[in-house]
Design a protein that fits this description.
Blueprint (H helix, E strand, L loop, with lengths): L1 E2 L2 E2 L3 E3 L6 E4 L10 E4 L2 H9 L6 H18 L3 H12 L6 H14 L4 H41 L4 E5 L15 H9 L4 E6 L6 H13 L3 E4 L4 H6 L5 E4 L3 E3 L4 E4 L2 H10 L4 E4 L5 E2 L16 H4 E5 L5 E5 L10 E4 L6 E4 L2 E3 L18
Parallel strand pairs: 6-7, 6-9, 7-8, 9-12, 10-13, 12-17
Antiparallel strand pairs: 1-2, 3-4, 4-5, 10-11, 11-16, 14-15, 17-18
This protein binds 5-S-methyl-1-O-phosphono-5-thio-D-ribulose (MRU).
The site of 5-S-methyl-1-O-phosphono-5-thio-D-ribulose has 17 residues, from α2 and β11.
Length: 363
């Protein structure tokens, strides 16, 4: 990812070799603010309060949270306590559980300094693997966009997306955005309809920021506008990210995704889900068992933005009680395909426990 022409990863270990730099995403797009994480509890807070977010990046922040914990106390007791604490920060994205389990497997047999070193090593591998996975998701999604471009004969390919499944949600590239950036870079005309994604507006504030940085034409729309645009033939395909996909292919993603899938189905607009293998939860058969995070009602009753003096301000928009379920389930029957690092699949493939076994075409 590039911001103002400079390359970053969404999470990086600093030159001291142990503390970790993230963006404070709550401040985007108004301010590019960096935070240095130095303690486990600070990492846990950054996840809970969404300074950092997006399923793969939650996992990456969680594993460094565990590194920071072990650096202070590498005992078995602290390993267990820190695992539980970090796992409880956000319940829906299964990537966090996957990554913390990977860490346990890597450090459990070791003690003391060796344990700390192994933790940092595994955390770095998990981040590097995320980058490579997303690059491959891009390569596997690109043919879809090429096909649409061919069909459109010069008219831009209109893609609708929800929330943020871009590089700000991963270590680099993003899942949904990876094929979009690749298509744009090879000269395919793409245009992205960006759902604002109330209540936290990850679309309007994060996806739009990313696309602008990459020079990809895009338009922010109210969450309610997608169905109307589909009826008018102004959406060629939808691509969304996900926090957890289960064995039957049901997809859990940011609240509002389901309504987009319904509208897409009714209008024959193909609805794709981009995901890396750590997002697949093979322990669950279908979507209704996925824990849905309930966030604070204040995210609904209030809205934040820049005032006329350029200051960030939060204002109240209702006097009534509010509810805030943060995710919903899109049944597999509405999904045209799953864009993964292994290829484009019609159904969720059997578990191999391993990424990057490339398949080609729609499997
Ligand atoms: O609550 P958030 O902002 O963490 O939700 C993020 C999403 O819903 C993304 O679509 C999902 O995590 C996939 S990110 C590649």
């Amino acid at each position: 990812m590039k911001i103002n022409g400079k390359h970053y990863r969404s999470i990086e270990v600093l030159e001291n070799g142990w503390s970790v730099r993230i963006f404070d995403q709550r401040k985007l797009p108004w301010e590019l603010a960096f935070v240095e994480l130095t303690h486990r509890d600070q990492a846990a807070r950054a996840i809970r309060e969404m300074w950092t977010r997006g399923a793969p990046l939650l996992a990456a922040t969680g594993v460094y949270g565990l590194c920071l914990a072990l650096r202070e106390d590498a005992s078995d007791g602290n390993l267990k306590k820190s695992y539980d604490l970090l796992l409880a920060t956000r319940p829906t994205a299964v990537n966090l559980r996957w990554a913390l389990d990977e860490m346990i497997a890597a450090v459990k047999p070791l003690q003391g300094d060796e344990r700390v070193k192994a933790a940092y090593r595994r955390a770095q591998e998990i981040c590097d693997e995320d980058v490579e996975i997303n690059r491959r998701i891009g390569l596997n999604g690109l043919p879809l966009l090429r096909e649409h471009a061919k069909k459109n004969q010069g008219r831009p390919v209109n893609i609708l997306t929800h929330c943020n499944a871009g590089w700000l949600a991963t270590v680099d590239y993003g899942t949904v955005t990876s094929p979009i950036y690749m298509a744009h870079d090879e000269g395919i005309r793409v245009h992205v309809w960006v759902d604002e994604t109330r209540p936290r507006n990850q679309g309007a504030s994060l996806t739009a920021f990313e696309l602008a940085q990459h020079g990809v034409p895009h338009t922010v729309i109210a969450d309610n506008a997608g169905g109307h645009l589909m009826q008018r033939g102004e959406v060629d395909l939808c691509i969304v990210g996900t926090d957890r996909v289960v064995r039957n292919g049901d997809v859990c993603n940011k609240i509002g995704t389901y309504l987009k899938a319904l509208a897409a189905y009714d209008n024959n607009v193909p609805f794709y889900v981009a995901l890396p293998y750590p997002t697949i939860d093979y322990t669950l058969e279908s979507g209704e068992k996925i824990p849905i995070e309930e966030r604070s009602a204040e995210e609904v009753t209030h809205i934040e933005g820049q005032n006329q003096d350029g200051k960030i301000e939060k204002i109240k928009i209702t006097q009534s009680p509010a509810a805030n379920p943060a995710f919903d389930i899109t049944p597999a029957r509405y999904v045209a395909g799953y864009i993964t690092e292994r290829g484009l699949f019609k159904r969720i493939p059997e578990s191999t426990g391993q990424p990057l076994k490339a398949a080609s075409g729609m499997v």
